[in-house]
Write a structure and sequence with these properties.
With 140 residues, the protein is an all-alpha fold. It has helices at 5-26, 32-54, 57-62, 65-92, 95-102, 105-117, 123-139. Helix 2 runs antiparallel to helix 4 and helix 4 packs antiparallel against helix 5. The longest helix is centred in the middle third of the chain and has 28 residues, at 65-92. The relative contact order is 0.08.
Length: 140
C-alpha cells in the first residue's frame, strides 16, 4: 500500500462521518436537490481555485476523451445520482441509519471490481465485505 493511503482513507471516513450531521441540519429547510446544488456550487468554486493555483489545468487539457468520459460517468453515477439518492434518504430518514446502509457500497464496489476490472477474489476481501454488511445489519 502507498505510504499515506491508510491515513487518507481514515481522514475520508472521519469527514464522511461528520458531513451527514451538517447535511441533515441543512435539509431541514430546503430540498435535497437544492442542498445538492448549493453544495456542488461551493465545491466547484473551490476546485476551480485549486486548479488555478496548482496548474492542474494543463493535466486536464492533456487527458484523452476516454479518460474524461470515464470520469464524467463516475461523477454522474456517484456525484449526481448517488448523492441525490443519499441526500433524499438523509432528508427523510435518520442519519444514524441511512449512513450505514449507504456505507454498504464496498459490497458493490467489490462485486463490480471483480466483474468489470478483473480484480482478484480473495478470502481477505470477501471476509471484509461480509463484516461491512454484518455491521450494517447490526446498526439497522
Amino acid at each position: 500500500m502507498e505510504k499515506y493511503s491508510i491515513q487518507f482513507a481514515l481522514l475520508a471516513a472521519l469527514l464522511w462521518g461528520l458531513a451527514p450531521v451538517f447535511e441533515k441540519l441543512g435539509f431541514m429547510k430546503i430540498s435535497a436537490l437544492a442542498g445538492m446544488t448549493v453544495r456542488n456550487i461551493a465545491i466547484t468554486l473551490v476546485l476551480v481555485l485549486i486548479v488555478l493555483l496548482t496548474n492542474t489545468g494543463k493535466e486536464l487539457l492533456q487527458a484523452d476523451l476516454k479518460t474524461i468520459a470515464y470520469i464524467i460517468l463516475g461523477g454522474m453515477l456517484a456525484g449526481l445520482l448517488g448523492m441525490w439518492s443519499y441526500f433524499q434518504a438523509i432528508k427523510y430518514g435518520e442519519a444514524s441509519r441511512i449512513v450505514p446502509i449507504a456505507g454498504t457500497y464496498p459490497l458493490f464496489a467489490f462485486l463490480f471490481s471483480i466483474l468489470f476490472l478483473g480484480e482478484q477474489l480473495t478470502l481477505q476481501k470477501t471476509i471484509g465485505v461480509i463484516l461491512v454488511v454484518c455491521g450494517v445489519i447490526f446498526l439497522g
